[in-house]
UniProtKB/TrEMBL annotation:
This is Uncharacterized protein. It comes from Ajellomyces capsulatus (strain H143). It comes from the Eukaryota.
Length: 112
């Protein structure tokens, strides 16, 4: 069967096929095809792409709360460097950060 060519614009992109063959995650390819179809129909992609899932909304809320705790933290107090343990570990910056980040996150604070 001979391929049929017509002049004009195509609504299909074969770039996603190349991406799939290159090992890109099929979920990403599917989303790209979906967005391409929406664009071809003249949909408002800004509105469509701005929608967040329930999980994304929850994650954003947690990140905002963490950022507010960080901005409200008092890092100006220096730990006791006199060689005498003050007994107050809450003054150490890494402890302050651990308190801000919380238990639900991986330990991202590098201990020195």
């Amino acid at each position: 069967m001979q391929p049929s060519f017509r002049s004009g614009r195509s609504n299909a992109s074969f770039g996603t096929n190349c991406a799939l063959l290159s090992g890109i995650d099929p979920a990403i390819i599917s989303r790209a095809n979906e967005i391409g179809t929406l664009a071809a129909r003249g949909e408002d992609l800004v509105v469509i792409c701005a929608k967040m899932s329930v999980d994304e909304i929850e994650e954003l809320g947690e990140a905002e709360s963490m950022a507010r705790r960080f901005l409200g933290a008092d890092f100006s107090r220096q730990p006791n460097n006199s060689g005498v343990d003050s007994g107050n570990d809450n003054e150490r910056p890494e402890v302050l950060l651990e308190n801000i980040i919380g238990e639900g996150y991986d330990n991202t604070v590098v201990m020195g």
